[in-house]
TrEMBL record, chains A, B:
Protein name: Ribosomal RNA small subunit methyltransferase E
Keyword Transmembrane: no
Catalytic activity: uridine(1498) in 16S rRNA + S-adenosyl-L-methionine = N(3)-methyluridine(1498) in 16S rRNA + S-adenosyl-L-homocysteine + H(+)
InterPro entries: Alpha/beta_knot_MTases, PUA-like_sf, RsmE, RsmE_MTase_dom, RsmE_PUA-like, tRNA_m1G_MTases_N
GO BP of this protein: rRNA base methylation
Keywords: Cytoplasm, Methyltransferase, rRNA processing, S-adenosyl-L-methionine, Transferase
Species of the source: Brumimicrobium aurantiacum
Length: 242, 242
């Protein structure tokens, strides 16, 4: 059954009017009619099943039949990652990270930034589309573009992945989370992924002074967006095995 | 330093003539001149350093200065994965898998195939470009499109990831490799990733009869190309920690 996204907060409301873009998609693209059933997610853990009772293209109305509410995951995957020069690549990261179960994303602004401006509305659409496709019920939270120094101050403690050979980064994500399990809790461990030109030594030093631990993402050199997906996967695997 | 790809087999040859596309890129796009240095990889573990002695756009000639030869990895990551309807997605997989260290890729043709024809030359270019960018010295091997039943016959033993709830697939890739380490050696464990419509029960049955083990890729539903990258990461992590 097709899945649509509507920001429904009142779970008991009887009817739902689809927003313009979803209405148009249902009525004009998919040619859905009165009587057709659909699923609606609100991005907050709820999955509604409903039936179309008005198929007007600009405002399709759905009669709610039933709903289920899912509990959020106990763990929380938060990746703070520098926007890439090429937007496609960052959008790929957003989609893949969502499929893999990310909970929170913060685009970070670093000294070696390749891109200093982003389009949050576009990124939000990617996330919504990704939860529909991957059957997730919780929409990842997308934060505003944040200077990396400010992020570090706001999030005392986390992990930072960088590529400097000389700096000590023998630990993998799994080992770091496991060795410091009281400090790095399920809910509280963002991972910093830098731009193609890497973090500066100052940025790394600031992180380390703020209880961040440096980690390695393996022996091969990864693009920013690949590093983001790899980190997401490593954290997911770690918490799923707890 | 810029990296170029030339299929050099004679390591002792003194001069290298770049093929037309690489020549053009060096001479016209990057405007490199006589005296400029460059790196050349042959995809077989060798990294040459050389200096341009003839910068004619159609046939740049490079004087070899030095070379290093790397040993291949001890482990071998082989993903057999169904081509996706959207080529961009499959090309993302090829690029990401290469960054992550994949050694061999076989596009497989399944009953629920969304795409039955592929462009191997285009895929090959993606792989070459990916090894240059990720500083890898070995070019992953790209096999011809192969029917999944034939692949299973040619590769007795491996892992198969599928989405059927009823079928037993409690094991993760790491657990499967670890529990059956005599059967699933570092060099001998391809992983089958199916199309969006999944493998058919017949295809899974054939695999299981041929000593394949069914694995799960986690709790969330992944697109084909995401599953391919995830499997690649999981195998890489497993072997890097041995």
């Amino acid at each position: 059954m097709r899945r649509f996204f509507v920001d429904i907060t009142d779970l008991n409301q009887d009817k739902v009017t689809l927003p313009p873009d979803e209405s148009k998609h249902a009525a004009k693209v998919l040619r859905m009619k009165c009587g057709d059933q659909m699923e609606i997610v609100n991005g907050k853990g709820v999955l509604f099943t409903g039936e179309i009772i008005d198929d007007a293209p600009k405002s399709v109305i759905v009669q709610k039949l039933d709903y289920i509410q899912e509990s959020p995951d106990e763990h929380h995957i938060h990746i703070a990652i520098a926007p890439t020069k090429n937007n496609d690549r960052y959008e790929w990261f957003l989609e893949k990270a969502t499929e893999l179960g990310i909970h929170e994303i913060t685009p970070i602004l670093c000294k070696n930034a390749e891109r200093k401006r982003i389009k949050p509305e576009r990124f939000q659409k990617i996330l919504v589309s990704a939860i529909k496709q991957s059957k997730r019920l919780f929409l990842p939270k997308l934060n505003a573009l944040t200077k990396v120094e400010d992020f570090i101050s706001q999030h005392p403690s986390g992990l930072i992945a960088h590529c400097y050979e000389e700096e000590d980064r023998n630990t993998t994500i799994a080992k770091s989370l496991s060795t410091n399990s009281s400090q790095f809790t399920k809910a509280n461990t963002p991972i910093l992924i830098g731009p193609e030109g890497d973090f500066t030594l100052n940025e790394i030093e600031k992180a380390l002074k703020n209880q961040y631990q440096a980690v390695t993402l393996g022996k091969t050199r990864l693009r920013t967006e690949t590093a983001g997906v790899y980190a997401c996967m490593a954290v997911k695997q770690y918490f799923e095995e707890q």
